[in-house]
Q: What sequence folds into this?
DNA sequence: GCAATATACTAGGACATCCAAGGGTTTGGA
DNA sequence: TCCAAACCCTTGGATGTCCTAGTATATTGC
């Protein structure tokens, strides 16, 4: 009836095959991968009733916090840290659902602005409430561990060039 | 020239909109998502010369550690913690590349065994060496932080039902 | 022994991500 | 002024993941 930890198994395999020096690092990275998978599944589950995926939700949330309620596509791509084509894809679907609208940039003909519709704003608010209550509010992390995670992962991301201190 | 941290921005937004109680949790979870994205990109980059993706590499590595060099599809699905159709997909491509082979289970007609070919075993070994040297060996995590991550994420995964202590 | 239930794998479809390439718009240096 | 380089978005293609069926094989219970 035992359900052993596949990551602990992998670590043992690494150690037994001459890679003991990187076994812990491998285990930590694999654990991050798996944790992300679990969290993403929870998030997608919470968003399902809203007919939203996490990618689309993130875009809606980003727009809802923008002062003007609009953002250029490339800005959204940079802030969400995803490929521009992923934003195109998300906007296509959100636009079909009537949650956002595209409009040309007033002065730069290359740029397209994304704008939240009233319906999009309402849905973003509802989805955020559910996400906060059902996922973030019940993450399963101890609160000291949350601070540790933010510190460790923040250090990693800064080191990876994800952002710089101004 | 500042490149502020998008996650810190999001956390501020959360706090300013009445969700201060879950803002830290949101930030930690978002950081996990982003860290996974960065790590996955590194891994895929390291595997590119081998014409392998991470999903396919994981399957090869798993097979290379199996005593007999073979595993039933359902076993692989359970150990990799992915959907059975994902394994079907990976095996299809690995089989096309001549790295694994399917064979019927000797006693259970429902089951298909995946077997590593000689070529697959060689490639797995080379890819592992590169991954260990270029990714796991240069993760960018402090070694005390690696232990912390393993502890925190291990606790989370156990809590999430990912595994049980025997 | 045979029908009902359970298990294993695969086919088809929806989504998301990235890369490569193409067409339109701006910008900046000759 | 004018054209090349830079920038922005979209299309098309490859992968991967999951879900929902559907087919085939095993196991169970009466």
A:
């Amino acid at each position: 009836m035992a359900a052993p930890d596949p990551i602990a198994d992998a670590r043992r395999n690494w150690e037994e095959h001459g890679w003991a020096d990187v076994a812990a690092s491998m285990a930590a990275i694999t654990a991050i991968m798996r944790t992300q998978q679990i969290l993403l599944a929870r998030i997608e589950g919470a968003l399902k009733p809203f007919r939203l995926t996490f990618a689309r939700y993130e875009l809606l949330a980003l727009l809802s916090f923008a002062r003007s309620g609009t953002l250029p596509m490339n800005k959204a791509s940079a802030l969400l840290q995803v490929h521009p084509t992923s934003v195109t894809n998300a906007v296509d679907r959100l636009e079909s659902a009537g949650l956002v609208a595209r409009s040309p940039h007033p002065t730069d003909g290359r740029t397209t602005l994304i704008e939240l519709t009233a319906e999009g704003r309402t849905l973003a608010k509802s989805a955020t409430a559910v996400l906060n209550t059902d996922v973030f509010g019940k993450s399963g992390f101890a609160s000291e561990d949350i601070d540790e995670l933010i510190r460790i992962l923040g250090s990693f991301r800064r080191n990876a060039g994800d952002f710089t201190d101004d």
